[in-house]
Design brief:
By secondary structure, the chain is of the alpha+beta class. It is built from 8 helices and 8 strands; from the N terminus they run ααααααββαββββββα. The radius of gyration is 49 Å and the shape is elongated.
Length: 299
Amino acid sequence: MTDEEGDAGAPGRREEATTPNDRDERDERGYNAERDHRDAGRADADAGHGDTDPTDGPSDDDAADPEIPAGVAASRRSKRRPRPEPRSRAAGSNAGLITRFRTAQSGPLLYIRETLYSALAVVAVGLLLFAISGVWPPMVAVESGSMEPEMQRGDLIFVTEEHRFTPDYAYGDTGIVTVEIGTEEGYRSFGGNGSVVIYDPPTRVGSPIIHRAHFHVEEGENWYDRANPSHVRANSCEQLPNCPAPHDGFITKGDANAQYDQASDLAGPVRPEWIRGSARVRVPYLGHVRLQLAGLLAA
């Protein structure tokens, strides 16, 4: 019998039998070796790319520090800043104030935005009208029925500087076409011959007057003979107010009134410098808004 086949209990023979604990330890050592091999491969790959700097990352002490939350330690190890979740407070804070102002669907920002847009629209329209009319304000509200039926109380009238959109045959350099000239030339506005003007005598208390210019007189002129007899209540110049004319100016009248403004002593002959503009376009009813606001402010 050879040595290999000798007695297992002979002296010097090493026991080859293993226990379950021995097998578990060997398996664990093999698993750890394989994991260390994979970690070493990843470290070599990271060093080869050169994307990270070992001095920038946290130390092992950071990862083991119990006072550092696990999520913070993980973010340090990953070399990446945490990204805010969509619709979170952090993500919302990144949106600029202008963006939130433009896209707000409710709340104070929506109210402020709509109010601001409305105000800007009103200002833009006002500036456009001013550029066209050349006077401010470019629109006036009719307060009485003196120009009916062509102008009703509460109408809004678009006004332009008197020299704009005026024919060459206007009286002198005033830009005003009188009823006399308009009858000869065929010039009409608001259902009658001649220009409708807005004028404001310096002695008047209240709103400007919007009436039609009938003819022009010179200082000291006896204009009784030129007047339409149905528009005066006098038999001579001596009985007629403002006759002879105290100064140069226009004789005016409301279409619905019985007398000239100067015959009723509403105003003297209208000087060109008193005229604020010529009426051009009528917008029904919108003047009521302005009249109501004026009444509230006066109260």
